[in-house]
Amino acid sequence: MKGVKRMKASQESQKKVTQLAGQPIKAFQLGRSAREWQHGYGTPSDGADTNQQHQPTWQLTPTAKQLIIYFSRSGSTELVASQLAAATQADVLELVVKRPYSGNYLETLRRANTERETEDYPELALRVPDLAQYTTIYLGYPIWAMTLSHPMTEFLTTYGRQLTGKLIAPFMTEGGYGQGDSVERIQAILRGQGARNNRYTRPLVIDGNRADQGTQQVATWANHVEAMA
Ligand SMILES: Cc1cc2nc3c(=O)[nH]c(=O)nc-3n(C[C@H](O)[C@H](O)[C@H](O)COP(=O)(O)O)c2cc1C
């Protein structure tokens, strides 16, 4: 039975997914060569997390056991979240902040550095539902300064206790320097918030400029997560 489900997940995710909950995804860094892309340095966004034409993606059902919670500034992590949603049929909750990060990379970098130094993380603009129905939580984020990006830090710091007992599956996009200490940060924040009995899958790490090429990798990882659930 599990084998059949896995096969389906893999076939589903072979389709090119450029929408999430019926909304188009714009990812600014896709297709850029390594030289142009400079590990994500300079990547613009449209100044709205993630697209001005978007409603935040909150796709919640009463029966799903898996939930994808993600933040994305310039679209790549959102694209991976869409591939994952197609492969797993999980519910989706996008993190948005009250004051979105600038479309300008350097302004974003300055703000992110200040927030990190002062540990003053951005206020979220969403109502988080009761998470009791979910057994697996996927956490998706871009890497900032070799660690979690701040909206995810804020989410975990505020709602971490609700993740008690859940299987945590971290996924991220980054500029080519890897996962940094982001997984350790998730573990430390959850412990600090009093969440207990969490298990962790291995993380999924994808280069932001190749987020559209990761469908097979996403499907393989989703199967790994499912096998641990
Ligand atoms: C403020 C900021 C800091 C970043 N720091 C890093 C870093 O330390 N290491 C890295 O590999 N990429 C870094 N990046 C690049 C992003 O992780 C990468 O472009 C990611 O794919 C963006 O995801 P998104 O499109 O979902 O926002 C940084 C990007 C920003 C905006």
TrEMBL record:
Flavodoxin-like domain location: 66-226
Pfam families for this protein: Flavodoxin_4
Lineage: Bacteria, Bacillati, Bacillota, Bacilli, Lactobacillales
Organism superkingdom: Bacteria
Matching Gene3D superfamilies: 3.40.50.360
Family matches, as InterPro entries: Flavodoxin/NO_synth, Flavoprotein-like_sf
One Gene Ontology MF term: FMN binding
Organism of derivation: Levilactobacillus acidifarinae DSM 19394 = JCM 15949
Matches recorded under PROSITE patterns: FLAVODOXIN_LIKE
Name the UniProt record assigns to this protein: Flavodoxin
